Amino acid sequence: MGDLRMRTAVNLYDAHYGLLAADPQTAVRRLTYDEDLGQASWITLAEARGFFAALGLGPEQRVLEVACGSGGVTCRLAQETGAGCVGVDINPHGIEAAERRAAELGLTSRVSFRVTDAARPLPFPDQSFDAILCNDSINHLPERLEVLRDWHRVLRPGGRLLFTDPIVVTGQLTNEEVRVRSSVGFFLFTPAGCNERLLAESGFVAAEVHDATEAVTTVSARWRRAREDRREALEELEGKEAFEGVQRFLEVAHTLAREGRLSRYVYLATRPSSPEV
Length: 277
Known about the structure:
The chain is an alpha/beta fold and 277 residues long. It has helices spanning 2-6, 12-18, 23-32, 45-54, 72-81, 92-104, 144-154, 175-181, 194-201, 213-229, 231-238, 240-258, and strands spanning 62-66, 84-89, 111-115, 129-134, 155-169, 190-191, 205-211, 262-270. Helix 6 links the parallel strand 2 (84-89) and strand 3.
């Protein structure tokens, strides 16, 4: 399964993290998001701050961000909450960029990163963290029940988990739409209601679930338009075929979100302070 997850028709993440500081990539992010955090997802800084508040973070707490990418959200979390943070990601280009960012911001005493396959048991002792954040990435991990059980293991009693799933099936999808939407890597398409059931089965108590599909609709349109405006520079950087592949991916993501056929949900859950009896 590890090999399957690495086969991609569109190389979005290696290209993004490997060329993170390239001028056209930087310009695209600045036009797409409210602030450039080096992200390659649907999150904005405004939404991230809402996540920090929902997790109730503060100094003396320890937070894990699963699939942290280039570490922009992880570093901002540490800056704005005072928490100590650990970011893990399977992409070595992302982790290299994250470590550079933490060093540039003077955060290395409170923020660390490591290359980790989050589809496997995490390399941390039981009850290591007060909170876990996973943004727009749980859909890249197979065996979701086992993943959630491992997250439960590394959370301390009373700890909070917040993740977004941008691949919740809420309407009809064609085989071609599924192919293009999942062209950037392994995707696990999940029917509505499934995540709530798996959270309960893994020992969590769901505190809040809400629809955040509008983020996909808005960000995908801005992202695609910003890339189109810089077509020549990006084709030179990425190659024409790769450029077109990302554009098709963004177009389908936008259509499915706008029509409400593939949705993005935010899930906030807690590990109970004591076992239920």
